[in-house]
Design brief:
Layout (H helix, E strand, L loop, with lengths): L13 H4 L30 H6 L4 H14 L6 E4 L8 E7 L4 E7 L5 E6 L8 E4 L5 E4 L5 E6 L4 E7 L21
Antiparallel strand pairs: 1-2, 2-3, 3-8, 4-7, 5-6, 5-8
Length: 182
């Protein structure tokens, strides 16, 4: 927004809390403000309490992401694969949790994308569960793949629950970790 004046940051505002109210290295004072979140997302300009009350705000969405990250111990997971994708705007990461796999799928473009996630780390017959809603959304097929659709700038975090014997038993790094299966 060229020429738009932003209110001065103050304690309690997200830009102050995140340390965005001071000078940013590599940016000139006359540059337009950098907003975090979805491009054009004006929720970042709200006070933090207002953002946390708004389910569509940057702070609320970030809080939800951090809650899922903590609930499933994603920060201490082991990355198994970063598979090749057919769309350059898509990033897929496959992680090993304590007794399940986790797949992160991100769309970095401003257009919807449709694609497939293919990874030998995925066990055919595994159920895919949305980690934010606990809803079953699909299954890994015999080619170690599943289809995915993402809206612009959307990301999904999927829990992959294998049927029967799980290959996690052979991973020594998981022996002291709690189960993510509830």
């Amino acid at each position: 927004m060229p020429g738009a004046e932003l209110p001065a940051p103050h304690p309690g505002r997200v830009d102050h809390v995140l340390g965005l109210d001071g000078p940013v290295r590599g940016r000139d004072a006359g540059d337009p403000p950098v907003l975090l979140g979805h491009p054009g997302d004006q929720h970042i300009l709200q006070d933090l309490p207002a953002q946390l009350a708004d389910p569509h705000s940057f702070a609320r969405r970030l809080a939800n992401i951090l809650a899922v990250r903590k609930r499933y111990s994603i920060a201490t997971s082991v990355q198994l694969d970063v598979p090749t994708v057919s769309n350059k705007a898509m990033l897929v990461m496959v992680h090993q949790l304590s007794d399940a796999e986790q797949v992160t799928v991100l769309n970095f473009s401003s257009a919807p994308i449709h694609g497939s996630v293919i990874s030998e780390a995925l066990v055919p017959g595994s159920v895919l569960v949305d980690m934010f809603t606990d809803e079953e959304i699909g299954e890994v097929d015999d080619l170690h793949s599943f289809a995915v659709e993402l809206e612009p700038h959307q990301g999904r975090s999927l829990l992959v629950l294998c049927p029967g014997d799980h290959p996690v038993a052979s991973h020594s790094h998981n022996s002291n970790r709690p189960s993510v299966r509830g």
